[in-house]
Amino acid sequence: MATTDFEVRQLLKVYRKGLISDELFEEQMKELGGQQRYVYNGKNHASEREMIMHLLDEYRCGENFASEFLARWVEVSDQECVKGGLRTVQQREAFHAQLLEARLHELGGILQCTVPAERREKEMSFYASAEKSDLEKLQSIAALIKDPAAVLKLYTDAIAQIQEDQHSKELLRTIIDDEMSSIKWLLEACETLTAQKQATAA
Questions:
Q1: Cα–Cα distance measured from residue 198 to residue 14, given in angstroms and rounded to the nearest whole number
Q2: Which residues of the chain have pLDDT under 50?
Q3: Domain ranges in the chain?
């Protein structure tokens, strides 16, 4: 058992570094056989189903919270171009949360994850503040998502382990595609406003 857990961790480490392909990763995970452990967010799970339900619940929680603070940000946005894009991103996050929650219920799971009160208060007050500019908020997000693939690796690593539940796998994969589009827009908006500010200052 311990040996298998160690092997899974080592395999994930190699996969995260991009040293093996998705196909080889999945094949080697299969070879670990009956003692296989599924890993998500540093926690081992005895079954694929258990890992997926943990992932669905946590991901749903994060997406739901993002849709909340983005909605508040839209209300106080000081740039029309930002407001327009934010509305799309906010709707995506809300829809993702709905999809993830629905799938969790279909698998017999229950909602357990909640956003810690301290984080909720800190992020909500920042993004809902009319005193903070759109550029400041975008810069804050850009600092956290300099490498989009690395930010999403927590999820893509787990998705790569899914063999049986193709419904959940493809649902998650397409949500990740959406996330990449949202991140792309946020980074581009940050670059645009930064360039505008520099041009004005010059």
A1: 42
A2: 1-3, 34
A3: 1-36, 48-201
